[in-house]
Amino acid sequence: MAAELASQPETWARAAELRDEQSRLPRRGERIAVVGCGTSWFMAQSYAWLRESGGHGQTDAFAASEAFPLRGYDAVVALTRSGTTTEVLQLVGDVRGKVRTIGVIGDPASPLVDLVDDAITLPFADEQSVVQTRFATTALALFRASLGEDLAPVVADAELALAEALDPALVDAEQYTFLGRGFSVGLAHEAALKMREASQSWTESYPSMEYRHGPISIAAPGRVTWQFGAAPEGLAGDVAATGARFETSALDPMADLVRAQRVSLARALARGLDPDQPRNLTRSVILEG
């Protein structure tokens, strides 16, 4: 996990240069669904918000097991590192011949490559660790670049996130709640998942404006509320009043996710855990039958 985490500025910059691959993603004006499982679902949420809010067309994000892919979409984008996830394979098989499918896949030898209409493979971002870091964010970098965004400042922010010294108090916190707005809601969910997977930590995640509708009751001294991107007005003060730590950064939210990944790794190592082989998890969820 450590080496893969640290390679993200390089893989993001590489994804930003993949003009042919970006051109094979859905065109402006097309109505699309983006599907994935776990981490890939959270990246789908971020892509969907960026694409639709940028005026590129209606974009819905689904967990693959809960998708409604036959709603007259022009295309379905399936995001998966392994290309072997049961729910994704089932969904793509079910819609084959009915709607164009585009796979964004880490493993070019996976069965999904031959099942989709168009396979975009990112083998340079594939990983050995069960806990995903660079594949997910590299796919999001590809999506962001395809929407016309300049990724150079984001890459620079990621380098800063990797160079920053981690505050031991941040690593040793009792509990974490991650918050986001817009495209960073998906990043908040992903940060919480990383913390649970790698370090068996108590984490939650919410849209920032929803936090005060109940979840703020968990905030207390020794706990962290971590905001990705700009915070809603008054939220920092509300958290401070609970005694919890309000963590935020001027970095791009995707780069701030790198900071959260580093914290999850540091917590795992401090607890004597192997973040590359978390309990109860495998690199891909393959269901029998």
TrEMBL record:
It comes from Agromyces lapidis. This is SIS domain-containing protein. Its EC number is 3.5.-.-. InterPro entries: GlmS/AgaS_SIS (IPR035466), GlmS/FrlB_SIS (IPR035490), SIS_dom (IPR001347), SIS_dom_sf (IPR046348). It comes from the Bacteria. Pfam families: SIS. One of its GO terms (molecular function) is hydrolase activity. Residues 22-153 form the SIS domain. Transmembrane segments: none annotated. Keywords: Hydrolase, Repeat.
